[in-house]
Amino acid sequence: MGIEADPALRAARMRSVEEHVAAVLTGAGPTPVERVPLTDALGLVLGQDVASLVDLPGFDNSAMDGYAVRLADVAAVAPGEPVVLPVSDDVPAGDGRSVVLAPGTAVRIMTGATVPEGTDVVVPFEDTDRGTTTVAILAVPRAGRHVRLRGEDVTTGATVLTAGTVVGPAQVGLLAACGHTHVPVHRAPRVVVLSTGSELVPAGRPLAPGQIHDSNRPMLVAAARALGALVTTAPAIPDVPGALAAAVREHLEGADVVITSAGVSAGVYDVVREDLVTLVDAPADVQLVHVAMQPGKPQGLAWVGERRVPVLGLPGNPVSAYVSFHLFARPLLRLLAGHVTLSAPVVGARLTQAVSHKSGRRAYLRVRLTAGAEGWLATPVGANSSHLLGALAHADALLVVPEDVTHLEAGSSARVVVTEPGALEGRVP
Ligand code: AMP
Ligand code: MG
């Protein structure tokens, strides 16, 4: 068998998925840090440590609705022997007075209100008769109970969140409590999505013979947006030399990444390589490579313009484009956004049915995850061909069949890349 005919040898000269990820990330770094309003920071990544501007709690305050008392005044309380104290004041939350607890009295106090000076303990309503002029104390908590102390959670100047933290709802709450109106985050990556192909027309237009709806462009726009990117896009570009280059030039300003679809295989009208070559300084800045994976073997990569903006040329078959986005574009967009973890989450799952695959290339099979008694179950969705968009839309994960494996039995376990974590809600095992 000649070298070209031997699939293992052909595969050996392909780039591995990991090598291509490394190539895509070459020279890339997080976007600049800017201060954005806290309300706009959701999903962005802190670019600096953030310290608190205040103590939390900001003052000693009550954790319960009840009565502030001195322990000496309630020492005689025993089961069936309450102590009755006059109620000398009433302090709701937000009351800014500095109240002093006079010895021999109780102050009625609400949750979050400043505890009067001299308070040893707050007796919750449940352990009293809830009196308003006098109150009967039926039981006494131990010293210090139900008083939240100033600074016990966070002290002024202490780092509350470190660089690299993703701003989620809990972080927004903490940052607001700490007094921040703006936070330093890596700005959202700016992504240009372009599709190429003379057969493409946008959904909503009638299809002439030979034409198809452009599905990759809206899909890739959505995928980039789902990762928090700011996306610009343009109508599909025909397979005419120079057309893609013109579109890239037009949209390059301010872009962090360009993602294109189609035109990177060996077809006669696959003009992406020629066009990218006109946009780079050195021919080595354009890579049209084969990656040892299925789907998604042909991949384009280039760095264009003075800022050496990465261009990811994804293959045109919709499933290939989808898989390629998750394997290659996702880590780049995550890196730009300042994330520490770049790849999609991977879980272990058991196959509900056997799968087969040709050896030599790592397969990413579309599967749907469900919760089994002992963890995730992966059910293949549709057949193993990269034009099957109908099946793709019912999958939420990609089952990895390693390069040297041709068959996996039902019940065997495999690694699964979770591409749509949000879709798994309610299915957690
Ligand atoms: P290509 O990579 O240009 O050889 O395209 C591979 C296959 O993907 C062909 O069947 C194309 O018609 C199809 N294709 C290319 N671009 C798109 C797109 N934007 N939306 C849907 N299908 C596409
Ligand atoms: Mg094409």
Q: How many helical stretches?
A: 8
Give the averaged pLDDT, no decimals. Answer: 94
**Radius of gyration based on Cα positions:** 31 Å
Note the gap between the termini.
Answer: 48 Å
Please give a structural write-up.
This protein has 429 residues and is of the alpha/beta class. The protein has four domains: 7-31 and 188-337, Molybdenum Cofactor Biosythetic Enzyme, Chain A, CATH 3.40.980.10; 35-55 and 162-185, Molybdopterin biosynthesis moea protein, domain 2 (Alpha-Beta Complex), CATH 3.90.105; 61-148, Molybdopterin biosynthesis moeA protein, domain 3, CATH 2.170.190.11; 346-418, Beta Barrel (Beta-clip). It is built from eight helices and 27 strands. It has helices spanning 7-12, 17-25, 169-177, 216-226, 243-251, 272-277, 318-336, 389-392; strands at 33-37, 50-51, 61-62, 66-69, 83-91, 106-109, 121-124, 134-137, 147-148, 159-161, 182-186, 190-195, 200-201, 212-213, 230-233, 257-261, 286-290, 293-294, 298-304, 309-314, 346-351, 355-356, 362-372, 375-380, 397-401, 407-408, 413-418. A six-stranded mixed sheet has the order 15-12-16-20-19-17, with helices on both faces. A five-stranded mixed sheet has the order 7-4-6-5-8, with no helix packed on it. Strand 19 and strand 20 form a beta hairpin. Helix 4 (216-226) runs parallel beside helix 7. The chain is elongated, with a radius of gyration of 31 Å. Mean pLDDT is 94; it is low at 1-5. The chain binds adenosine monophosphate and magnesium ion (MG). Magnesium ion binds next to loops. Residues 195, 197, 199-200, 212, 214-217, 261-263, 265, 267, 270, 315-318 line the site of adenosine monophosphate.
